[in-house]
Structure formats: structure tokens, C-alpha cells
Amino acid sequence: QLQASGGGLVQAGGSLRLSCAASGLSFTRYNMAWFRQGPGKEREFVAVINWSATIIRYADSVKGRFTISRDNAKNTLYLQMNSLNAEDTAVYYCAADQQVTVSRFVAEYYDYWGQGTQVTVSS
After folding, report:
1. pLDDT in tens, 40-74
2. What are the distances in angstroms from CA 3 to CA 59, 65, 85?
3. Which residues are registered as beta bridge partners of 69?
4. CA atoms within 13 A on the CB side of 113
């Protein structure tokens, strides 16, 4: 129901734009988020956007470099990633949370997950 795409290999300092297409769910009834899992690391929160795109939160590690957005007409979530560095290398996952009254940062609260897209930053 969530299909992530847009990952790839990029040099340090470069940019990528991830997309997450939702199907089979009422997109506007979900807060959406990006998480990532680097090699040998636990899954970590990256960014969250509420259903109406009026509340956005970022992890400190990506603040000022990444931008989360959504197009409710296209049922699609985005993550624009700029100034990438080696620490951003990870599999990136999109996730949907049906609890829309609060923006949550913990993976266990999310109801649906995409399959992940690999982002590799070469230094």
C-alpha cells in the first residue's frame, strides 16, 4: 500500500528526492513519516508531516537539509534531501500513522510501511 522510490547512489553534497505512493488507503486520514535504517543501526525517525501538512517535524540530524512534503491530490509523500553526507546512507522507509491528532516519532506507532529504498552517499 506504500511504495517508496527515488533512492540511489549520490556523491557527498548531492541531492535526492524520495517519493512514497500510497494506494488502498485514505491518504488524508494518515500522518506520514520517513524513517531510515543505516548499516548496523536501529531504525530512526527522520521527519513527519501531519495529514494537512500544517505540522512538520524533523530529526536534528537532518534539520535544514531535508524537506518533507505531501501532495494529497496525488496520494504521495516526498522527502527532498540536500547536502547529503555519508551518515545519511541508509534504507529509507515511508510510514503511515492513523493517529492524526499528534505527530509521533516512534516507529512502533505506525500502521503501514513501505518496502524501503536504498540511499548510498559516497564520500
Report:
1. 999 999 999 999 999 999 999 999 999 999 999 99
2. 22, 23, 25
3. 78
4. 13
